[in-house]
Specification:
- The termini are far apart.
- This protein is of the alpha/beta class.
- It is 30% helix and 28% strand.
- Helix 1 (2-18) runs antiparallel to helix 2.
Length: 212
């Protein structure tokens, strides 16, 4: 079974590379991170398909291409060191970030998902991740500023608190919109935030508040 997963992971990486992701470190981390660990048993046979999958509570594990692309963009614009993730979910994107950046801070509004993600990350010996149960719209101000912030759910409008938790030169990548969503990059230059619309995407909504 493990060999099947390895072959499937290699085939998935070739698909992602063909779609335009070229960062070798990102591709290597994706290939060596067992996505099946982050997927429920009944869906493990779909673990290495290039598609989003349900993880319960109305949430999904993101499409591998999108995980790779968002991570690549952060690296391309010079993000390093400390990053914030909004929407821990399954912990898959968190695991990718933890292998590419020094420290990862991640916020999840659904307590049960947070606990599952923590267990999975420890299973993979990833301990440079700090988790918070709370409202992603508010970010994590006590740990700011961040070099990069990645939002894994679609916001109706850009969360202002996240912009102001960026360090100067830092970057926020976030899906914006409701019916039509656009992956959007913001780069902080002093008190200005330079906006770069990137590509149409489809994410679950970023909901305010938290759930025990």
């Amino acid at each position: 079974m493990l060999n099947n997963y390895v072959r499937s992971a290699s085939a998935l990486i070739e698909q992602i590379r063909a779609q335009g992701v070229t960062d070798r470190k990102v591709l290597s981390v994706l290939e060596n991170t067992p996505r099946h660990v982050f997927v429920d048993d009944v869906l493990k046979h779909k673990s290495y398909e290039n598609t989003a999958l349900p993880i319960g509570q109305g949430q999904t594990i993101s499409q591998p291409f999108i995980v790779a692309k968002m991570t690549e963009i952060l690296r391309q614009v010079g993000v390093s060191g400390k990053v914030l993730e909004i929407g821990t979910g399954s912990g898959y994107q968190t695991a990718i970030l933890a292998q590419l950046f020094d420290d990862v801070f991640t916020v999840e509004r659904i307590k049960s998902l947070q606990w599952q993600a923590k267990r999975r990350l420890h299973q993979l010996d990833l301990y440079n991740v700090a988790m918070k149960h709370g409202d992603g719209w508010q970010g994590w101000s006590s740990k700011a500023p961040f070099s990069g912030i990645i939002v894994t759910a679609a916001a109706k409008s850009v969360p202002q608190s996240l912009l102001h938790q960026l360090q100067d030169g830092g970057a926020l990548i976030v899906p914006l919109g409701e019916q039509e969503q656009v992956l959007t990059l913001f780069v902080r230059q002093g008190e200005q935030f330079i906006e770069h619309p990137l590509a149409p995407v489809k994410f679950v909504p970023l909901v305010a508040g938290d759930i025990i």
